[in-house]
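Hi team,

Filling in the usual template for the complex we talked about on Friday. All components are listed, including any nucleic acid strands or ligand strings, so the model treats them as one assembly.

SUBMITTER: L.P.
PURPOSE: interface mapping
COMPONENTS: two
RESIDUES: 1026
SEQUENCES:
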Amino acid sequence: MPALARLCALARDAATLRSVHALLNWDQETYMPPAGAPARAEQQALIASLEHERRTSPELGDLIAACEADASIPADSPWAALVREMRRDYDLAVKLPASLVAEIAKTASESTEAWKAAKPRSDFDAFAPWLTRMIGLARQKAACYGHAPLGEPYDALLNEYEPGMTARQVEAIFTPLRARLSDLVARIAASPKPPSDAPLRVKIEPDRQHKFGLFVLESMGFDLKAGRLDTTTHPFCEGLAPGDTRLTTRYRESSFADALYGTLHEMGHGLYEQGLPKSGSLRTPDGETIPLAGTPLASAISLGIHESQSRLWENFVGRGRPFWEWALPHAKKFLGPALEPYAPDHLYKAANIVRPSFIRVEADEATYNLHIMLRFEIERALLRGSLEAKDVPATWNRLFKESFGLDVPDHARGCMQDIHWAFGLIGYFPTYTLGNLYAAQFWEALRAASPNLDEHLRTGNFAPLKSWLNTHIHAPGRRYRAGDLCQRVTGKPLSADPLLRHLEGKLGPIYQL
Amino acid sequence: MPALARLCALARDAATLRSVHALLNWDQETYMPPAGAPARAEQQALIASLEHERRTSPELGDLIAACEADASIPADSPWAALVREMRRDYDLAVKLPASLVAEIAKTASESTEAWKAAKPRSDFDAFAPWLTRMIGLARQKAACYGHAPLGEPYDALLNEYEPGMTARQVEAIFTPLRARLSDLVARIAASPKPPSDAPLRVKIEPDRQHKFGLFVLESMGFDLKAGRLDTTTHPFCEGLAPGDTRLTTRYRESSFADALYGTLHEMGHGLYEQGLPKSGSLRTPDGETIPLAGTPLASAISLGIHESQSRLWENFVGRGRPFWEWALPHAKKFLGPALEPYAPDHLYKAANIVRPSFIRVEADEATYNLHIMLRFEIERALLRGSLEAKDVPATWNRLFKESFGLDVPDHARGCMQDIHWAFGLIGYFPTYTLGNLYAAQFWEALRAASPNLDEHLRTGNFAPLKSWLNTHIHAPGRRYRAGDLCQRVTGKPLSADPLLRHLEGKLGPIYQL
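RESULT (copied from the run log):
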């Protein structure tokens, strides 16, 4: 078999193991009975170690080297990009010993169970030993990856999620963003005429919310024959395998917008997964046609780009006036009479209320980024060793008071609210705000390219928007790095300006600033 | 590591892969979106081949041989049984080439999807090529296993499910059983006073049925923290992993007994899985304590014994008069007013109506075994090569007419009703009737040992029964072969007499024969 074809076959094999691991995780969050947790941890550790074996096999290294040396692969071709990305993944993977990979997988699974048990009781003491272990493992991982001479452990982990980005670069973007956002939030807080949140506080049974969520998903083009929507404590999207993309959300009777925006968010991720060319194939320079499933050309670029897709549907579509002009009549049908008194403008304004609050996943579009900055600061300090796990609650509560002016009432609404640290996702949070920034910049580009966009959205015609995203963002897979894609699609490097223009342009009129 | 400890570690590793494969299957039947099927087939094939690698590794063979030669393991100890059973599994596994194992797994997955699509349309032509492939693979498998000089291909497959049993032995039990059963069914058909099935034809919403099913499971001692109950086309139980036993059932509004007895049946399997010593451990002759999970000592003996547990709860408990004396007041609460007019005796009699019908899983306790005999005859002929897949419908319909006096109206209610052949479970059906026979014989033994059994059941005290089964049937795992267990527990070899005594003793008075 020619090297390129064999390389793709190995990638596909490793991706199949990854998809099995993803099912183990999905099932653990959705349907696994609690007593199954110890066995699940063993299953995860075993599959993770098998996947790691595949991703670090000497044969894979040899094939990558052979393809790099193959002059018949044009430098600007998708195949060159595939080899470049497989080199990146391989170099990262060989730096981690299999024993560490297995230990992280097993500990993450147990730690997640401990977090799930301790969170409802706000019992940080029960969770602290697990956090200590997960931070310790993250530092071990960072040490294995290494970082540039001027860098820090954080960079090594961030690079897993957002290739090439550093903590220093994140800080450079976050610092001015924080200043302008804080100013905007302060002016909003002083506004004498805040909108009413009454339309979002009506009571709606979870079952009705679920049916409405499915209707919205289908209307927007999410393929439910190739996907699902379930309920979990912490919503997520898992692009499990070709033809199998799973979303989760959660329902609260007295706050239907939580589930609705959560569903739109995960659907944005899901449309990206469904838009990647997982059932596509491509001819090699040798003239062989190779399926792309499991290769970098059918994979997401970075978490920041992934998040840009979720934010775009959640905030740029879902919190826009045209959305509510389309959605409200359907919402009234699906959700019952409680919404009858309201017009689209009421929902539009209510969905854009800015108000400091405790829970990140329920935060508004403006304060959300302040939640991220707080987490970034804490996990950076944990990795540097200047903060210990046991001191996280005190530090969290102090920083929260500074940023939001609020006293954290309990750890469930404080430092224990997110699954990320329990699961070992450390160095991951900044990608949420990077996603907001990418989304804003893409949104400006697609508005410029689609002058009738608002009219389409208002009439429930989501196909042109989805099609633009499919073509420009989804189809290339990892052909380009995030920064390059941004430059190609928007003509400019990433900047905080589009997001600030978007927020100020929308919130100014709503709050009569 | 001493050989015995290392042997158990390898068994555990293979069992972990099996549990992952089981989750892939469970998910495919319950929640997987349809477009995920091709990727699922690849996942299953990969995991199956990894499991097969483990089960056939030369290291495993060497360890088994080392333990067999180890004089410090007493011949009548559980450890000797463990080595004996691992030898059996190893010898079977090394006979199958990895490529055949992978092909069977992948084809079974695709064939199951084809069956699912074709069955509602009774489209046998669409399914026939898949049945041909699955039979071809089963014959290949039988050829790899081989059989005794006087045996036939069927024996090789039956031995997978019911170690040591042969088609000839099955025939020897089935022939007289068929004669006495046919006579009983004929006398029942001639009875002038059949009971009314009205109490089972009331309409009950599926959601109420589900809640009642969960109540019954909990009352009988099935641990829902270590298990689940979901909905599938074809109900099953999957003892997925330690602490994770999953049951499925299906609901029909106009026939709540289908789901209730289906749930009791799968619960019987589930109690066996939960009763196996999966979280137990045992000291080796070296003084080392080894966990039993994944070893033969924490596994089921045979499908016949497994089925005896499901039949015992479904038929011997659930279709008994004491059950309805306990259950009816609860059923009235959970299922609503439709059952108000009825007394326990009405339900007891209705649940024991004997009437030839098309669907095996809905058949009564007496005619059920006639369904099995028909399938046994057909698959035996398919494996011998005296019948081709394309001729299955005509043969099925002819044999069905002979046994039941009924014309099969369509293939969905005929030869396409079961998932087994689509999934490659060929040589499996006889174990259902063997299960009925074992159940009857165990039931006689436990009634002799527990004179107050009826009183316990009548008052909802299921603990003594469950405890007897835990001790005598579940706890030994595969320490004894099925025939030996039967002899130990009941003092006699397996015989058809207890089942016939049970059916004649119960149905005689109901039908006033």
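MY TAKE: The CA atoms of residues 34 and 113 of chain A lie 8 Å apart. Strands of chain A lie at 227-231, 237-241, 244-249, 281-283, 289-291.

Thanks, L.
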